[in-house]
DNA sequence: ATGCCCCCAAACTGGGGA
């Protein structure tokens, strides 16, 4: 079983990258974040022709998430249950497929919109914690994967890439991430690579890719049984070398 | 030294977001 998560930074700009990637990797599921389009604008047919079912939760211009699935599925949520009334942004998509609850998420960055913008990030994390709690209490196999916009520790960002009050490394953001772990979820990458310095994102500016000035902000958190079955975690860095790449690369999780 | 990229609105450039 193979799951991929990829912040694509506009599906309309990079649908060909995704197509080539799917042909090569043939994942069971692909989580996409930052598709940056409305549902009607998503190139559904392209992927349906490749044998994928396409579930899109988009919005105009920004954000937006989608899941491509090679298996039958049930749609669970397009908004985190705890945010229902107050969430205007397309940042969450949850399905059940092959007996596993699959949660695709795109957390607010939290650096824009001042303190209020940062609070929205914390609200999202709290709603995520609530959702994880519910699923784990009910003993459901689940995977939370996506762009968390959080560097869990100081090892997860290159020196001098972030200021000390950046929303990606603020204590409140990190505590939210740790609370998810304390609930019993496993950080899949750290389960296999406890000490290596590894990144999933490199800024377009300042030659960040060439200098390896990256961040680890794309994560996969696994419920206990999924963690037992974890076989490999691959950061597909080759995608960052392609023409007009996304600033994030895919993370491939195999069970 | 923000050296990039994407989106949109209203234009052939600027602002916002990341």
Helix content estimate = 25-40%
Write the element-wise H/E pattern from the N-terminal end onward. Answer: EHEHEEEEEHEHEHEEEHEE
Radius of gyration, taken over Cα atoms and rounded to an integer in Å: 17 Å
How many individual helices?
Answer: 6
Please state the structural category: alpha+beta
> Distance between termini?
5 Å
% residues in beta strands: 15-25%
Characterise the protein shown here.
The structure is a single chain. This protein is α+β, with helices and mostly antiparallel strands and 255 residues long. It contains 6 helices and 14 strands. It has helices spanning 11-25, 44-48, 114-137, 171-182, 188-192, 224-229; strands spanning 2-7, 29-33, 53-57, 65-69, 74-77, 92-97, 100-106, 142-147, 186-187, 201-202, 214-215, 218-222, 232-235, 251-254. The strands form 3 sheets. Strands 3-4-2-1-14-13 form a 6-stranded mixed sheet. A 6-stranded mixed sheet has the order 5-6-7-8-12-9. The protein is globular. The chain starts with a strand and ends with a strand. It binds one DNA strand of 18 nucleotides through loops. It comes from Commensalibacter papalotli (ex Botero et al. 2024).
């Amino acid at each position: 079983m193979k799951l991929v998560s990829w912040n694509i930074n506009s599906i309309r700009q990079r649908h060909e990258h995704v197509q080539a990637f799917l042909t090569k990797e043939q994942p069971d599921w692909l989580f996409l974040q930052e598709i940056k389009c409305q549902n009607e604008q998503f190139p559904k047919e392209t992927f349906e022709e490749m044998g994928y079912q396409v579930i899109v939760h988009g919005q105009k211009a920004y954000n937006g998430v989608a899941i491509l699935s090679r298996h039958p599925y049930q749609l669970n949520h397009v908004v985190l249950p705890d945010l229902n009334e107050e969430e205007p942004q397309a940042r969450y998509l949850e399905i059940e497929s092959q007996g596993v609850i699959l949660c695709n998420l795109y957390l607010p960055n939290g650096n824009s919109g001042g303190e209020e913008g940062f609070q929205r990030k914390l609200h999202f994390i709290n709603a995520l914690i609530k959702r994880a709690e519910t699923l784990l209490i009910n003993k459901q196999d689940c995977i939370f994967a996506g762009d968390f916009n959080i560097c869990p520790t100081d090892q997860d960002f290159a020196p001098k890439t972030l200021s000390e009050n950046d929303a990606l490394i603020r204590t409140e953001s990190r505590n939210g991430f740790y609370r998810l772990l304390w609930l019993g979820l496993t950080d899949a990458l750290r389960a296999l690579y406890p000490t290596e310095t590894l990144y999933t994102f490199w800024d377009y500016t300042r030659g960040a890719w060439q200098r390896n000035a990256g961040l680890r902000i794309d994560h996969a958190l696994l419920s206990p049984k999924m963690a037992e079955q974890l076989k490999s975690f691959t950061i597909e860095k080759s995608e960052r070398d392609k023409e007009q790449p996304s600033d994030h690369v895919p993370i491939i999780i195999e069970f």
